[in-house]
Amino acid sequence: MKNIFLILFLFTSLQIVAQKNDKDRIKALKVAFITERLDLTPKEAQEFWPVYNAYEDNTNQIKHQELREIRSDIRTGYDSMSDEKADELIKKLNKAEIQLHKLRVDFSKDLSKILPSKKIILLKASEEDFRRKMFDEFKKRRGEKR
User: Is 131 contained in some domain?
Assistant: First the structure.
């Protein structure tokens, strides 16, 4: 019995490490992609990356904790949900979306102190290009597995 528990524990641990490695690898690819596209000077890069990483951490926290919790509540309780509960979820959802919007506005203001406006616009386009490339790669790999 102990052996089975140990094997399950090791397997689960390996999956978590693999997922973390995948996330780290994707983040490294994104950093390289953005750095290349923006052609940051050393001074710009030194000031840009801490601001960008803080923004990413804050938005990820809202997206992956608060919004995930709201979606889960909707999925699991929709059929038996009262109007009061639905109103509460809408308020939580709106609050999270307002927080994300405020983070984006503050991020743009912070970037305007570091980068020229054209590079800020290029950053937005580069992030979208990166997401599209990652999604296309995901679809391609998913198709290969089938």
Answer: yes
